Amino acid sequence: MFPRSTELAVFLLSLFALLVGNASISADDRPNIIFLLTDDQRWDTLGCYGNEIIHTPYLDALAEGGMIFDRAFVTSAICAPNRACILTGQYAARHGMWQFGESMTAEQLALSYPALLKQGGYRTGFIGKYGVGAPPGEDVFDFNKGFPGQGKFIMKKKEKTFHLTSVMANQAEEFIESSIGIDKENAKPFHLSISFKAPHVQDSSSVKSDQFPFDPDPSIADLYRDIEIPLPSTATADYFERWPDFIKHSEARARWAIRYWSPERTQESLKGYYRLISGVDKAVGRIMAKLEEADVAENTIIIFTSDHGQYLGDYGFAGKWYPHDASIRVPLILYDPRLPESKRGVRKEDFTLSIDMGATMLDYAGIDVPESVQGRSVKEIVDGATPDDWRKAMYYEHHFVPMEAWNMVIPRNEGIRTERWKYIQYIDSDPLFEELYDLSQDPNEMMNLATEPAQAERMAGFRSQLVKMRESAQ
Fold first, then answer.
1. What are φ and ψ of residue 133, in 5° steps?
2. In what helix (H) or strand (E) does residue 255 lie, and over which residues does it extend?
3. Quick one: average pLDDT of 80-104?
4. Can you spell out the DSSP letters for 22-35?
5. How many beta carbons lie within 10 A of that of residue 361, not counting itself?
6. What is the rounded CA–CA span in Å between residue 261 and residue 252?
């Protein structure tokens, strides 16, 4: 069980005392950077994002001491392509890695954020699910505990059971200790990327209906036991029946039939999902404590986000792929202990994207961002001012086509999200199926206005804008 009441209060007080006491860092002292990436975690599954049920005290503490981005999105909601987006800072339309198992070319790898950080003098490390083929070797990572594919949550060794998230926390502690070494004053700044498997299901669609797809850390297996987790407001048969047949028979519904086919199964799945997130939070607490123990917390930036969201029964779906906020909106916390008090706990509504992560880390490291990168650093926003030319809308693309042997149907789609509007187009449908939502009146995307006569001019404008944004992404 996690520390509550007294233990947690002592932890938080010591954390913020450390922040106040060590806010002044030499301009020549480049920060350490830790990048934390969860898998399939939607934006509203943290306490700091308003979820009153989930237990995430350490991540909430990071948010309270850092900056929270309320409009953080991915440019493609699927593991491998979007992880390539994060590594390269490019839309998938440009990097071209749409299939699982693909690796970056030597040129792409050389311009990835970890390679540039290593070239720029950082000690680099990677832990967890790499997601873009096999993780590269020592030419990119000095410390490499990455793995290809999905990995397994539960591991057994010599009759002992270990949970992957806890093992990854062990490896993070090992990396921090090895980065400091004996000669601390002359140690390189370090960068560590940790890509958690959680809260992804164990084996996606191959998990049979009589198996449980979420495997939490045994130490928190009873968390949420006596709580009923509410479903999203759109998780009803009525909303599912509104979809055309090609979406009703897609992979999103097939996975719903595995995880949410009965009230009992729904609670099992939701609680398992929440427990995996709480397990990540527990690991983050350990990492934060190790940074303090190593006396480097005052100069270590932590960035926390997810590779995409997840339908938790919304619209009768499980999985991701489509451009609804449940699928594409993610948490983003940027914690910089050097921030003045006035900038801690601040919320920002500027559009940030997964392709911005690499540029942001390079910017904090004082390393030039390559021209090939399409994202941009959010450090400008953290420092206090949103540039006049910051994006006012985002483009979403999903052109992944499953292999025929997988027996999966995932319709290709694209979309645009502005502050007020969401436009979605299923590009292979015939007749063309589109969605339009007025988010100012309908934040849960419940009422599709695409066929309303009053929206005809707006729809024409979005179709034209989509073509331009698609071309710009290439």
1. 70, -150
2. helix 251-259
3. 92
4. T----TTSPPEEEE
5. 27
6. 13
